[in-house]
Write a structure and sequence with these properties.
The chain is mainly beta. It has one domain: hypothetical protein yedk fold (Alpha-Beta Complex). The chain is about 10% helix and about 35% strand. The protein has a 5-stranded antiparallel β-sheet with strand order 3-1-8-9-13, with no helix packed on it. A 5-stranded mixed β-barrel has the order 4-5-11-10-7. The longest helix is centred in the last third of the chain and has 9 residues.
Length: about 230
């Protein structure tokens, strides 16, 4: 799964990388401990817009037909294998896809001393393009909430020791373009983009358990505690 991630790249940098226009007046401070339920930047290409947009959506997808807002808390992730079947995701999979920018994400490994957090990112530190879905939900009081979920795939061999799932990461501009194209609605073709990330293009290392507390912030959360072989840095 993906239940915690990092976004330290500025909105202006994301706009350049994804060739997108930020929502007017929207800004986002670096966050090293992002948790579900937050309003966070996503990149999307709406049919009525000529350019990609960056705008805030709440993490935890609320299907447009949901009766209650709290349904989103159980939908922070969506399994790639069942997107085309599950009522909660199948329409968004065809028509409302987004990219969730992330500089990295956390995963926890079970150890005799408890769960050890690891930070996972590209080796060169460039932002990841996580595949996501978005929705707009309207409450009985006509209050509108834009929300999203992060799609997951089986973990690659590199990350299997940590967890059996990982986010679906899009590779390069062409895959991002194809994923965001509102004219593309074939689940079988789209599904080809949702596979475990290349094993040689990812790094991970243990970090401080202070990340376990969602209130903790700062770049020290992603500093290595030891190397991959268990030695002190």
């Amino acid at each position: 799964m993906c239940g915690r991630y990092v976004l330290k790249s500025a909105i202006q940098e994301l706009a350049r990388i994804f060739d997108a226009r930020p929502q007017p007046g929207y800004s986002f401070d670096p966050d090293y401990n992002i948790t579900p339920g937050r309003d966070l930047p996503v990149v999307l290409q709406a049919k009525e817009e000529s350019q990609r947009l960056i705008r805030p959506h709440r993490w935890g997808l609320i299907p447009h037909w949901a009766k209650e807002e709290k349904m989103g808390y159980s939908m922070i992730n969506a399994r790639s294998e069942t997107l085309a079947e599950k009522p909660s995701f199948r329409q968004a999979y065809r028509m409302r896809r987004c990219v969730v920018p992330a500089d990295g994400f956390y995963e926890w490994k079970k150890t005799p001393d408890g769960k050890q957090p690891y930070y996972i990112s590209h080796p060169d530190g460039r932002p990841m393009a996580l595949a996501g879905l978005y929705e707009r939900w309207t409450s009985p009081e006509e209050r509108k909430i834009d929300s999203f979920t992060i799609i997951t795939t089986p973990a690659n061999k590199t990350l299997e020791p940590l967890h059996d799932r990982m986010p679906a990461i899009l590779a390069g501009d062409e895959e991002v373009r194809f994923w965001l194209d509102p004219e593309e609605q074939n689940p079988s073709v789209l599904g080809e983009l949702l596979r475990p990330w290349a094993e040689d293009d990812i790094r991970f290392y243990p970090v401080s358990k202070t990340v376990n507390n969602p209130r903790n912030q700062g770049s020290e959360l992603i500093e290595p505690q030891e190397d991959l072989f268990g030695g002190a840095e």
